[in-house]
Amino acid sequence: MNPGLASLQAYPFERLRRLLQDVRPPALPLVDFSIGEPRQQAPELVARALTASLQQGLAEYPKVLGEPALRQAIAAWTSRRFTLPTGFLDPDRCILPVNGTREALFSIAQTVINPCQDVKSLVLMPNPFYQIYEGAALLAGAKPHYLNCDPGSGQPDFRAIPESVWERSALLYVNSPHNPTGAALGGEELAWLVGQARRFGVVLAVDECYTEIYFRGPPTGVLSVAAQTGSLDSVLSFHSLSKRSSIPGARSGFVAGDPAILAQFLRYRTYLGAAMPPFIQAASRAAWSDEEHVVESRRSYARKFAAARDILGEHLDIQLPDGGFYLWPEVGDGEAFARELYAAEHVRCLPGAYLAREAHGLHPGHDRVRIALVGSEAECIEGLQRIRRFLDNRPHASSQEKESAWHS
What we know:
This protein is an alpha/beta fold. The chain contains 14 helices and 12 strands. It folds into 2 domains: 3-41 and 293-394, Alpha-Beta Complex (Aspartate Aminotransferase, domain 1); 44-288, Aspartate Aminotransferase, domain 2, CATH 3.40.640. It is globular and about 60 Å long. Residues 30-387 form the Aminotransferase class I/classII large domain.
């Protein structure tokens, strides 16, 4: 067996299942805030494109590189969204369709890490983090190096990374906007990270799957920063339709960036057999070519956050994030909170400890929970009201009440 398998920790939702397995909740419909799976209505134009193309290409193997029409649609959207110079993003060399960012974020570590090299043996990642980053590092024969997120900024202090750590690093995962804090990195910080990655020979993998769910204007993308340097060297940007277009079941996204890295990534994925079915490619073209459904989705998420402020603001520190659809409040012991809430109201949320590791003497998730506002507006309001009732009735709730820090 691959020895890295023994190093993998249980996935957060398996840990949550074990935490709640002996709890008997009340006879209320379950409200599930635990998983970041958008359950909003899929865009009609995407459903139509999928249905119309179901018979397309069933008699032939799909290409790992994807159809030219899909890569061109992705290049057009990316160039518009991030204001890239004409021709900067070559759809034949700088874009690779992938089966969702999860698959690609895992596979890129297997591609760029040399397990036989001790010098470049670290993979840097934020803490809390998307657990795929950690698993990818371990199964590639590398060692995760956790960068604790600052409670104020919601992102790691990347400038505090010692040069000795940079020198030993092969890959840096960045998540902007960040899951679960919702904090996005600005252009100045991204530019500094691009410079450091090139200086130390580190692949900069920027997970931007939440970049289209924003509330104060679009977050800066790493491709915009790279364009200002005139080069895509060392830079990879990962995007997904799961969050942007609320179609997680399609497993569709792309990675764009350094053509030399993508050439090797294509080779790896060709052997892996990771090709997107033709009907998913057709649906994806429709999604990347339309913005109207994305605008309406943002409006819906904004209404959910407004409801969270109104319903929970007297008890919890509810902040509007730069992007994403998560609440990340302090609640004391996150596991105890999740268990008690489930027992009292049949509402599931995820303990923050399941999304982080203790590192450098701190555990940045222990006293928090993640609440994913991914259901319908009615379902989210129902769940938020149950959380409010739980907090109202919790014996020690008064000691946890905080002034709302709502930022409009």
